[in-house]
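INTERNAL AUDIT FORM
Audit reference: QA-55
Scope: verify that the stored structure record matches its stored sequence.
Auditor: D.O.
Record contents follow.
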Amino acid sequence: MSDVYVNKISRVLPNDPVSNDEMESILGLIDGKNSKARRLILRSNKIITRYYCLDKNRNITHTNAQLTKEAIDKLFDEDFTEDDIEVLSCGTTTPDQLLPSHASMVHGLFSNKSYELNSSSGICTSGMNALKFGYLSVKSGNTKNAVCTASERFSTWMMSEKFHNEIENLKSLKEKPIIAFKKEFLRWMLSDGSSAILLENKPKGKLSLKIEWMEAFSYAHELDTCMYAGGDKQEDGSIKPWNEYSPDEWLTKSVFSLKQDVKLLDANILQKGVLSMYESLKKHNVDPSTIDHFLVHISSFYFKDGLKEQMDEKGINIPESSWFLNLDKVGNIGSASIYLMIEELFNSDKLKKGDSIFVSVPESGRFSYAYAFLTVC
């Protein structure tokens, strides 16, 4: 079995940063009215700036595949070219189409050679799943390297015109033309970006991160669906899929919009997260107090204090001085958020050889969690 090292990591944040006051002018007004929920949601998540694949005139500037390729291109130099890739493993929540896979579409933007592809679907843990596929490929000796990516293009899903037919339908039914909170909530939470990681079986350069282990957990056997798209939740908690709705209903019910069951999220995301975190650290005999850098993906700063409190109660006493977050600056980019945290830390002056890095990624889709432990070498 080979050791596995993060030797390079890149990021792409499209266009100019978007302030809180600019969001609605770019995403658009629903029914021509300012959102009443926007300021409340932004006050809780404490995000100050984010990035969209939309310019100030609401023109689309990137596909998800293009965004991903830009991040991969930044990995190339004299020592590692596009012809050296052995595995391309891509994670995303927001592929440009249902089929073919996201990794196939990214590969199609290159003109290099054939290599193994992996596409990890899902929500926030899809980036970690993509990383684990690459990690296991190099670890097993199947390949000497792997390029792993995480990317999102949420903004085009959130544009106001996507909800126009639903609003008009509500008006015709003489109901209040208001989009349900479970749909509007995510308009003010999510943003765009991409990142790529080069894994190799030997350390290179001034700094490398050795991946010591990766773990993942799912609680779908216990809990209902919380975040979803391409369907709608029924009274019994099941999801009716998009292909069981009529084409008219796809529009009048905004079937393809992203939705979040906020009550289910609040009741379970921290509890199961702390439980799985405890199990992963216990399995690998890691003393939480010795962790030098704790990188945790949280969708909103609303959860930070509660997470710290529940971790302390469970004996996961990671000093708050070790926590590393950049949510306020780059926004919540779903699967790419943790990559962007690793990238920022990796390219900072905060790391020294021997430091430990613990990575935590929760996913509210049906409550999945992924972890990684790295050391600086």
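Auditor finding: record pair retrieved intact. The domain at 211-376 is CATH 3.40.47.10 (Peroxisomal Thiolase; Chain A, domain 1).
Action required: none
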